[in-house]
Structure formats: C-alpha cells, structure tokens
Amino acid sequence: MEKLAAVMLGDGFEPVEALAPVDALRRGGVRVRTVSVMDGLQVTSAQGVTMHADDGVSDVDLLGFDLLVVPGGSGGVDNLAKCAPLADALERFMAEGKPVAAICAGPMILADLGLLEGRKATCYPGCEEGFPAGAYQDVRGVVVDGNLVTASGPGQALDFGMAALRVLAGDAAADRVAADMLIAG
Amino acid sequence: MEKLAAVMLGDGFEPVEALAPVDALRRGGVRVRTVSVMDGLQVTSAQGVTMHADDGVSDVDLLGFDLLVVPGGSGGVDNLAKCAPLADALERFMAEGKPVAAICAGPMILADLGLLEGRKATCYPGCEEGFPAGAYQDVRGVVVDGNLVTASGPGQALDFGMAALRVLAGDAAADRVAADMLIAG
Predict the structure, then answer these.
(1) Which residues of B touch A152 (CB under 8 A)?
(2) String of b and e for B7-40 (b: at least 16 CB within 10 Å)?
(3) Closest alpha carbon to B184 in A71, A152, A140
(4) How far B181 CA sits from the closest chain A CA (Å)?
(5) B13-57: pLDDT as tens digits
(6) Collapsing DSSP states into helix, strand and coil, what is residue B8?
(7) DSSP code at position B121
(8) In this complex, do A15 and B19 lie within 8 Å of one another by their Cβ atoms?
(9) Percentage helix, strand, coil, to 5, in chain B?
(10) pLDDT digits (tens, 9 = 90+) for B59-98
C-alpha cells in the first residue's frame, strides 16, 4: 500500500535537509506532502529559497501520515516548535512506534516533548543540551533506533532521507533509489 | 569583492543538485541568484518541488556573473539546453577561464557546445556519450579541472557545491562552510 509522508516546513528551514528527504522518498514511491506551518503555503528557507508547500498544516490530519519528517535550520525549528498539531502528532507517533525522522536542530523538538527518554538519537552538535541522559549519540551521521531516524546536519541530509525511506518502504526501494542517486544508501 | 553566482533552473531540475550549491555558496558569502529559463519565475523540479527563482534569464546579464551553475535532472537540462543566452555565456566563460560548475546530466550541455575538448569532466553514468575522447572521468564524485567543476549525481551534490565555492571564494570560506554543514569539504 502506498505510504504517505509529511515533510514539515517553517520559515527558516534548512533547504537541503528538507528537500533531500522529499527527493529520496518520492523517488522511492512514497507519496510526500510538504506541509507549511506558516500562515500560507509559501515558505522561505534559510539561505533564502522560497518554495510552495503542498499543504497548510490546518488542511491536513497529520495522524493520517505514515512518517513525519522534521528538518533542521534553527529558524525553521523555532516555527515548528510552536505548531501544536505537530507536537500532538509527534507524541502519538512516538507512542505508537510510527516512523519519525528529525535532523540537525529538529530532534530538539522531540527532546523538549520528552520523547527521547530511553531512546538513541543524534542532532547538530550543541543541540543535544535538552536530551535525556544516555540518549545522545555523538556521531556525524544517521542514527536509526527502531521507528526513530535522526541525523546530525546538512552533510548527512541525503543519508537521512535514505534511512527514512528504508524504515518506511523497505530495503528494495531504498537500494534502488540509492543506486539511482549514486549514494551509498 | 563579493562574488556573484547564477544557478540556472529549468522545469525538471534535480532539486538537491540545484539547492545544495545555493546553500553552500550563500553560506560562503557568495551572492547567488537562482535564474529561471522558463516563461516565469516559478519553476518546478523533478520530484515536484515548486520554487520561485530570483530572476528570469531575460532580466539578467549572465556575463556579469562570476560563476554559472548547471544542475542536472534530465528535464531541467533539456530546458537549459534550449536557452541561447546560457549557451553564449557558457562559451564565453569557458573561453575566458571563468568558473563553470555542472552536475549529473548538466555537463552534456558543455559537451554539446564543444566545450569539453581537452578538458577533464565527469557526469551521471551514461551521459558521457557526447564527451570528446579523453574528457570523461569515470568517478562517483567531483572533478575539478581549473575553472571547471563537474560531478556525477545527487549523492555528490553537496561536495559539488563545496567545490564550486572553493574555486570561487577560496579555501578559507569553503573550510568554514564545510565545518558548519558537517561535511568533509
């Protein structure tokens, strides 16, 4: 059955961290919606790239998705952190073991919601301050802990998207996309 | 003096190959304009991401830039290949040794214009058919040959952007951005 992913966007999102997962997931056959938490569909990234989100957060039911993707970029994360429907959905996803992927400053939202207790995760160096004891994995890369995919920064954005695709759609889809995109996968 | 780069966009561009260079270059202090070769400023990538370019190609003088970036995505490259001002500018840049960066299917445009004679370049595997003898470097990575930066595919997009930044703005800027983005640089 077709899988459905939401990539959450607030003004100031890191463009590569948001679009590498969109790219990898769509290539892998996942139906991806980019979802703006701003007033309209127009969102502007860190480094000033303006794009149109597919949906506004008030127009979708985040609980109907199979994967939530939380990109970094500190301004974007500040905006995502204010989004109550996203917070509710992240709590439900983590409680139910549904896939959640967060990168760079994104995992701070999970930490602030108390969702990293007993979990393993990484983030941009310095963003681990609010992590519970034992959660932070000090790597430059991707950490997969069951349903939870986290990664450290822009340099890991494609690997992060690939890992989310692998968790959501399986090895065959991920291996095919990794070959197409000329990445190790 | 501030450097000025144009990232050329036609409908069907590969989003990571276009935006990773925008991101790396802007972080490095380069003034980047995304330039649409379509009728309007709205451009839609491969994998369906719609963004606003900063300029239309008819509104800028490409010869006034210090770097031209040609992303891949076969649909995007088809559109770029039809753009006469881009072809003229690429010919001038290559003749004058000004920086040109092309990735994935992008280097095909250079090959078709006869600009890879005596040069070393790479591209997405299979796109090297029109390369002159001796030009193609069979790597999954980035090839820097003086003013010419080429790379193989999406998996190399950040390294490609970093290499373009290094050629245009020097090692200090590139090293700083590589550290910020958590990439090898």
Answers:
(1) 182
(2) bbbbbbbbbbbbbbbbbbbbbbebebbbbbbbee
(3) A140
(4) 5
(5) 999 999 999 999 999 999 999 999 999 999 999 999 999 999 999
(6) strand
(7) B
(8) yes
(9) 40, 20, 40
(10) 999 999 999 999 999 999 999 999 999 999 999 999 999 9
Half-sphere exposure of B30 (CA within 13 A, CB side): 32
In the DSSP assignment, the letter for residue B53 is -
pLDDT of residue A184: 78
Q: Which residues pair with B55 in a beta bridge?
A: B35
Interface contact A133, partner B, CB < 8 A:
no
- Which residue, among B63, B146, B68, B52, has the nearest Cα to B107 in the 3D structure? B68
Q: Please tell me the distance from the alpha carbon of residue B9 to that of residue B160, in angstroms, as a whole number.
A: 16
Handedness of CA B56, B40, B162, B177 (dihedral sign): positive
Q: Is some CB atom of chain B closer than 8 A to the CB atom of A58? A: no
- pLDDT 10s digits, A44-84: 999 999 999 999 999 999 999 999 999 999 999 999 999 99
Report, in angstroms and rounded to the nearest whole number, the Rg of chain B calculated over CA atoms.
15
Decide if B52 touches A, using CB distance below 8 A. yes
- Nearest C-alpha in B relative to A28: B47
Element (H, E) at A32: strand A31-36
Under 8 Å CB-to-CB from B49, ≥6 apart: which residues?
Answer: A19, A22, A23, A34, A51, B15
The interface predicted TM-score (ipTM) is 0.96
Query: Nearest to residue B39, comparing CAs of B88, B83, B90?
Result: B83
Residue B185 pLDDT > 90 = no
| DSSP-derived 3-state class of residue B74 | helix
Task: Go through A139-164 and write b for each residue having 16 or more CB atoms within 10 A of its CB, e for each that does not.
Answer: eebbbbeebbbbbbbbbbbbbbbbbb
User: Is the pLDDT at A185 greater than 60, yes or no?
Assistant: no
DSSP-derived secondary structure letter, A185: -
